[in-house]
Design brief:
Largest sheet: 7 strands, parallel
CATH class of the largest domain: Alpha Beta
CATH superfamily of the largest domain: NAD(P)-binding Rossmann-like Domain
Oligomer: single chain
CATH architecture of the largest domain: 3-Layer(aba) Sandwich
Shape: elongated
Number of domains: 2
Radius of gyration: 21 Å
Distance between the termini: 27 Å
Mean pLDDT: 97
Helix content: 25-40%
Bound molecules: NADPH dihydro-nicotinamide-adenine-dinucleotide phosphate
Strand order of the largest sheet: 8-7-6-9-10-11-12
Amino acid sequence: MVLLIDIRQPTWMQEDALRDVLSPMLRDVPILCGLEDGDLSTVTMAAVSRLHPGMVERLPNLKLVQKLGAGVETIMREKGLAPHVRVTRLISEMPANEVAEYCLTYALAFQRNVFAHDEAMREHLWQKIAPRKTHETTAAILGLGHIGRRAARMFSQAGFRTLGWSRTPKTINGVECRNGDDALASMLGEADIVASILPATPETHDLFDASLLGRMKPGALLINAGRGDLIVEDDLIAALEAGTPGHAVLDVFRTEPLPEGHAFWSHPKVTVTPHVSGWHLDDGLRDVAENYRRLTEGRPLLNEVDRGRGY
Ligand code: NDP
């Protein structure tokens, strides 16, 4: 029973560093770092940042893919992944807080006209713009799961009127929760700030097309910290030109890294961040070791993904 670690994102986390964290929790368990580190036929569990093409074919005895993070779409879309292979994800406190903070940071920047003041400063313009009143601002949080629920609470505590949207009904203190497609369209018409923390699934793919973007309030702020394929990018550019929404803050993209020459890079109404809103896995890493033990002992796994539902 060998554990494989495959990350391939050295600026985020190195395989060796993760092995150093896991080894004390999994004494005597052989851990491979990367596909070239040993005999892959013995690997039963793979802890990965994503599933790369051709990877699972090299792991004939794979029983569990542990995502090192929350979003599992690259795993769900992997055609070679046998139906018996189970998938788990991390539900960690720190990155959930970080994503919520990211959304709130840009919401507050919007309230205080940070984008406009930066631009005016570059032009040497002493231009006073009234800040928005937070208690008169409506924020809609799309996705009320582990992260979205936290973001909604944070917005509510910061004084925003806060709406929340999910697939199934929810109750969250201080948040007006709604669900269903009709609810989304009407919610967008009320929201000055829309922050999406939705997973990538067949249902959320291309959800924000010209028609839905057109339901937003003129001048509104759109934040996407979920996944890039939520938004039809050409439709967003056209919508921004028309002023609805007024600005987009995007942490995630259909193609990452965002290609050189992409219109978002230089668009005055777009803020690009390189998929950094959730970063530190910290407290979640012990679950990787715990899931190895549970898999070995045949006990229920932590945070198992519903492969049918896709998240
Ligand atoms: P969860 O699975 O806990 O929550 C997902 C939420 O989305 C649930 O509330 C779910 O509704 C809702 N949802 C899913 N499909 C639909 C739909 N079709 N219509 C309406 N609501 C829907 O996930 P997390 O909160 O942990 O993470 C969410 C996503 O954030 C991840 O999948 C990942 O893609 C992204 N992410 C991005 C990061 C970044 O750095 N940018 C970092 C971490 C995560 P219901 O509760 O009713 O099922």
